[in-house]
UniProtKB/TrEMBL annotation:
UniProt KW Ribosomal protein keyword: yes
Gene Ontology cellular-component terms listed: cytosolic large ribosomal subunit
GO biological process terms on file: translation
Any matching Pfam family: Ribosomal_L29
Key words, A-Z: Ribonucleoprotein, Ribosomal protein
Designated name of the protein: Large ribosomal subunit protein uL29
Gene designation per UniProt: rpmC
Source organism, top-level taxon: Bacteria
Protein source organism: Phenylobacterium parvum
InterPro entries for the chain: Ribosomal_protein_uL29, Ribosomal_uL29, Ribosomal_uL29_CS, Ribosomal_uL29_sf
Amino acid sequence: MKTEDLRAMTPDQLAESLLSLKKEQFNLRFQAATGQVDKTHRAGEIRKDIARIKTVLRSRQATA
């Protein structure tokens, strides 16, 4: 995800996206623990996407 795309989203869409990414991160942790993970790089991408979403949400709270 790009920051530009995230800034164009509504707070509800951001919250929904954050929730789905956290679920995916949870599932990847279980796959890694059992040795079934195929895309090992995806965990880092998810972590960074979550941070981007939280940053956009926090910046909107600071300006409001």
